[in-house]
Amino acid sequence: MADLIVMSAKATEEDINRVVEKIKSLGFQVNISKGEEKIIIGIIGDTRGLSDENFKLLPGVVEVISILKDYKLASREFHPENTVIKIDGVEIGGEEFVMIAGPCAVESEEQVLKTAEFLKNKKCKILRGGAFKPRTSPYSFLGLGKKGLEILKYAKEKTGLLIITEVLSPEEVEMVAEVADILQIGARNMFNYRLLQRVGKIDKPVLLKRAFHAKISEFLNCAEYILKEGNNKVILCERGIRTFDSEFTRNTLDLTAIPVLKRESHLPVIVDPSHGTGRRDLVIPMSKAAIAAGADGLMIEVHPKPEEALSDGFQSLNFEMFEKLIEEIEPIIKTVGRRF
Questions:
Q1: Contact 37, 10 (CB under 8 A)
Q2: In 84, 131, 243, 338, which residue has its Cα 20 to 30 A from 100's Cα atom?
């Protein structure tokens, strides 16, 4: 089974094209990653039964590698360099540490604009806010829908902040993509394969949240669904898993997932300590820990008046608390060699 063709950095364009044409002639797609020391050509498709002998003797080929994991495109072997996603001057996955913040749900124009105006001067470049809200109870606030998207669009026009918001179904992808700079797939939809395939066909970054009961391998396989469709702008988000202890926290924030994901995959990793703990008093300490563990950014719930929030007020920071968060994490960000 052949998955990766490692070629010498000195391989000629003719050598590379010969390998690429060979792969395509066998019915597979190709992904090429060029580094200073070697060139890696990934074979996309079901490679079971594909012999290494098809490539070993071709000029410029140094090694043929088999990837035993189901997630190939998401794997570090397939793409050794970190993926850096660039959106209008913001880089996710590079040296820049990215802050995503805003209310859990879009409740009103006043609420969103007040929050956005505050955040734009507090190291935050991406505004979060749910127009469509999947809730455990059908009687909970389910969001403003299209009206919520209009409010987010207006907030971007007024403040210049990028927008991330959740999409719930394949049918809504186009509508949400008209407003959102990043589409969010929530934890409840991580296993919604039709939705994953649909966002894989658009040219917009996708933030994929880990389901609260998902193993890391399952998480990466769901990212694979998006990557396989051609969208390589995938951001992974650790947002807590469900464990036996619900007395003190809503979920258990799995900090070990950060270095594991960074080792296993080249994709950026964002951490959501708001959902990860379910308690505003734990957001700052867990944010610090996430940064130290290697996260590329944070997603924080912020509300002008959390006590009046229609969704997740108990885990949302008010403005004063968010300022305290920024003040306390900035030295850690510098210490780990990152910058806002």
A1: no
A2: 243
Q: Residues 279, 151: one domain?
A: yes
Report which DSSP code applies to 144.
-
**21 part of a folded domain:** yes
Please report, as a single letter, which amino acid is at residue 89: G
Q: Residue 298: which of 101, 151, 160 has the closest Cα? A: 101
Element (H, E) at 238: strand 234-238
If asked whether residues 15 and 157 sit together in one domain, one would say: no
Structure tokens at 145: 């829908």
Angle at 93 between CA 170 and CA 102, to 5 degrees: 60
**In the structure encoding, which two tokens stand for residue 80, read together?**
């050794």
Question: How many domains in the chain?
Answer: 2
Instruction: Report if residue 76 sits inside a domain.
Output: no
The verdict on 227 and 319 lying in the same domain is: yes
Query: Is 184 inside any structural domain?
Result: yes
- Residue 68: name the closest of 78, 55, 58, 53 by CA: 78
- Answer yes or no: is 133 within a domain: yes
Structural domain ending residue among the three candidates 37, 65, 93: 65
The CATH number of whichever domain residue 256 belongs to comes to 3.20.20.70
Q: Which domain holds residue 47?
A: 4-65
Q: Is 118 helix (H, G, I), strand (E, B) or coil?
A: helix
